[in-house]
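pls design
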């Protein structure tokens, strides 16, 4: 379940799908000895303010911890985290296009910003991370953040806007990396990699092995 209002209205269904469902996937992958597994996450999992984000944060934790659970099976798990996929189901862009004919675009808050990625970019990023993952990383692409008013002006410059207020569980601004996670984060030219703070993680192997370390530096976000 990927929509904030639906998860707020159906909390138990969100938990069953996003958390218990994640556990089911982990157990099946270990049982079937799948080599590499990438879980798709969301910017809403970073400092979650709604149930959807909380379930995805829990899902992320489960997939990272699953590397220790797999043991001798050697199934490896990592996570990819990005923002809104342009044109996806429930996205504001198809909604704005649909409402354009009415001449009025509903805006929750004119200050609101969101991260955006195209479907093609998202797919390619996942495939790239799947190829180079070590297990335990959270991969984050460097993608733009846009103000909702700028999006509205591009899609329907002729329309006027109507402020309707923030919906339950929504944030004004999403983040990709929390200040606490920044201590474990490496920055690469086109992505960030959050390393897990667990005993089985071999930081030397990730920096000297699969990932080309060109341009990498340790990230530090101020509180």
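designed seq:
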């Amino acid at each position: 379940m990927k929509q904030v209002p639906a998860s707020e209205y159906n909390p138990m269904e969100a938990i069953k799908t996003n958390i218990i469902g994640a556990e089911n996937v982990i157990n099946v992958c270990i049982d079937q000895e799948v080599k590499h597994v990438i879980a798709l996450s969301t910017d809403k999992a970073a400092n979650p303010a709604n149930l959807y984000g909380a379930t995805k944060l829990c899902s992320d934790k489960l997939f990272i911890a699953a590397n220790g659970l797999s043991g001798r099976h050697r199934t490896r798990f990592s996570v990819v985290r990005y923002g809104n996929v342009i044109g996806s189901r429930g996205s504001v862009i198809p909604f704005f296009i649909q409402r354009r004919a009415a001449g009025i675009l509903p805006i929750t808050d004119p200050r609101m910003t969101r991260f955006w990625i195209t479907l093609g970019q998202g797919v390619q990023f996942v495939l790239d991370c799947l190829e180079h993952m070590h297990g335990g990383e959270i991969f984050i692409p460097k993608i733009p953040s846009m103000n909702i008013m700028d999006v509205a002006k591009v899609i329907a410059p002729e329309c006027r806007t109507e402020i309707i207020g923030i919906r339950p569980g929504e944030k004004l601004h999403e983040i990709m990396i929390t200040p606490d996670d920044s201590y474990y984060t490496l920055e690469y030219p086109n992505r960030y990699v959050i390393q897990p703070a667990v005993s089985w993680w071999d930081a030397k192997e990730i920096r000297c092995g699969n990932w080309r370390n060109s341009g990498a530096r340790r990230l530090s976000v101020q509180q």
